[in-house]
Each structure stands twice: as structure tokens, then as C-alpha cells.
Amino acid sequence: MAVNKGLGHRQFLRQTNTIRIDPRVILASQLLEMNQVELGQALETELSENPALERIDAQDAAPTIEEILSAIAPCELTPGGGCNELHRSLPRDSGVETDWVDFTPSNDSLWDRLSAQLLGAIDHKLCEYLVGSINERGYLTCNREEIALACSVSLEEAEEAIALLKTCEPAGIGAHDLRECLELQLRDAATPAERLARKILRDDFEALVKKDARPLRRKYKVPIDLVEEAFFVVSSLNPFPGEDFRAETSSVQERSCAAQADLVIKRDEQGWVVEVQGPSVLNLRVDRGYEARNRELLRDRSANRDEKRHITEYVDRANRFLDAVSQRRRLLANIGRYLVGRQSGFVATGDYQFLIPLTRSQMAADLGAHESTVSRATSGKFIQIATGEVVSFDIFFKPALRIQKMIEDILTTENPDNPLSDESISRILESQGIKVARRTVNKYRDKNKLLSSRRRRSA
Hints:
Blueprint: H1 23-33, H2 36-49, E1 53-55, H3 65-72, H4 84-89, H5 110-118, H6 124-132, H7 144-151, H8 155-165, H9 178-185, H10 192-203, H11 205-210, H12 213-220, H13 224-235, H14 241-249, H15 252-255, E2 263-268, E3 271-276, E4 284-286, H16 288-299, H17 305-342, H18 344-349, H19 360-367, H20 371-378, E5 382-384, E6 390-392, H21 399-412, H22 422-431, H23 438-447, H24 453-458
Parallel strand pairs: 2-5
Antiparallel strand pairs: 1-4, 2-3, 5-6
């Protein structure tokens, strides 16, 4: 008897439990993790992709203080003695006398500073050409032949002008290459290490690049420590003096653009003020046309299915985005108020010795939030405290950073003629309530690229 062993099919039901994460939770977590710049980019993307989300126009916004004053108290807008920009903008028949001091720039550029140092010493045309040939790094981009030809001067005059340019500040300006730039910065060498560094730069540049101290010790008949000190002197020079000048004269906003504050804490007459930076729901809304049409479609059962799907999808998406932005701002504001209450000493003064040990889990428990939520809200973000200093949120949660900053502060106030040893720094920290071993001080100092006491004394 043959048995049919063919394949068969069976149907059965199985009940399983799966977790489906709400899209609103996912979006809120994503926006919470972003810093101010990233959130701004995400907003621009959402505005371009979602027709139901719109930015409130300026004319729809609340009137500014200036607009209110111009309407009810125009005399309040009369410029005072300190308002130079308004004085400059007034017409000539306004009765306000113009002083040449009004036109004094607040920040000179590198080229303005060089022109001021050279004018009167050399011909105006030669000065203009020479200064214009300096690039942003401070290097001269032309040779004496080009200068002589362009300015109709002799080669000797061009050479003298270049030599004069090289005496200008900042030191190192006017060099043609790195080696010459570093040599110019050592033209006033005073210490034995600086004088040796200048000789090595001039005659033994290859050995300097290799950091090979032994042949230089034999050649110059000096101790190995002095050769190493000379190496350090060279490494501490600025290879791009023009960029250094630009960093000094740039505005605070330009210098801190890489670390924009996501949260600002400041103090006024009424007390502490916590401001969350970045996009706000006050400047965004669901498009009124989409919102009105969505209400109509909810009541109309015979509405076009595709239109209803389109309207509902984008309106819901816009509302989810607005809710996520609002949640992010609320949490950051709560964190700011928490830090004002818990770390008020540091927030008010910027003094790192006032920092109280804190963990993200402790903050989360006190705020009634999950630790991962607080971690997303603070990781990779910065906060501006009352002193105007912008610091990373990590400073509140990593004790090592606090100790490193305190070591930096101690070294900035030490006597340069009698630098503090690591053991002395350890004792100072212990007197401030922080017990740190000498080896730990050494480790933190090296991590921050701070010199030893012996090298600080010679520097």
C-alpha cells in the first residue's frame, strides 16, 4: 500500500506582544539630542519638506520696544551722548556736529595695523603694495623684484622696505616661509635657550624637525636639557602670526561661534534668568490654511480620500515637530533652573572650586526624568553662565574637568619667578577641600599641556 508523503499546509493563529514606539517619542528624542546649530538645520529641512509648517513672519510678531516708543514716546529715541552710531547716521542739517573721533574703528585689521607702523617710514605707494601683499597668515607673497617693478623703486629700496616690514608687530610678519617666520620671532632672544633655538633654526633646521638632540649637544657643546629647552622654545612659537592677530581682534561672537551656548543663564534686577537658545514654538505654527482644511475634512465623511490623507499627514507631522521643540525647551529650561539652585556658586562666579559633585542620574532623579533623557539633553551642548563664559555641560558631571580647571587657575596666579611644584599644587587643592595625589596633578597638568615647574621658570 503506497503512502502519499506529499507536503501539506496548516493554518493556525499565534498571539504575540510587540512594542511599537510612538513616532512622537522618537522625534522628541532626536531633537533633544541635537545642539542649537543642528536643531536649526533640522528646522530648515522640516520647513522645506512640510507645507503645513510655517515660520511666523516679522509683521505677525509682537512689536518691539523701539516700535512702541516711536509711536507713544518718540522723544525717548533721541540719541544720547554714548550712541555714536546714531550720531553718525544723522543728516548734516540735524544740528549735530560730527567729530572725526566718531569715525574711529573699534577693531583694526592686520593690514591697518601694519600700515600704521609703516606709513611715514617708506613711500605711500610702496607701503600700500607691501601691506597688500601680506596674506591672512602674515606671510609676504611677493619678492623684492616684484615689489621694485610694481612700485618703480630700486631693488635696494625694495629690500629695505621688506626689512622694515619684518620689524613690525606681531613678530614674524613679512616672512616668506616658516623657517624665516620663526627666526623673526626670536630676533630679541634673551635666554640661553632662545639664543640656542635661533642658532638651530638658522643652521640645523633638519635636526630640529627630527627633534634629534644628541648631535646638537655635541655640536654646540651644551647640556642635553638646554637643547630640549630650545626645542620647546621653537614649538611654542606661532607659525601663523597673522591668524593670531585676527583671533585677538575678532569679536567675542566670532571667537565663540564654535561653541555656541544652547542655554544661557544670567542675572538681572529681578533675579536669575534662564534662556533656551535656538528655534522656539513662538516663531512657528501650523499653516492656517492647512489647519482650517483639516477641521473641515474631519467633519466631511465624503471628502476625497487622497486629499484627506495628505492634509492629515502633514498637519500631524507639523504638530509633532512643534511638540518636540516645546518639550526640548521645557527640559533645558528645567535643567537651567536646577543648576541655578544646585550650582549657584559656580554659575554666578565661574570659579571651579564652587562646583558641587553631581551626576546625570542624580539630576534625572531630582527632575523626575529618565537618566537617558538628561544625557541626551546635555551631551555635546554648552551653557553660558552669568560671567559670560561658555562652558560644556560636561563640567558639571566630570570631577576630573573641575580639577584640571582648578590647576589651570592656580598656575595663572603663581609667582613666575618661583613656580609651584606638583606637590605644592596638591597641597593647595587639599586646602580647598580636594584631596589629589601629586601624580594625579602631574597627569592632569600633562593632559592640559601645562609645563612643569622647571620649564615654567625658564619660560
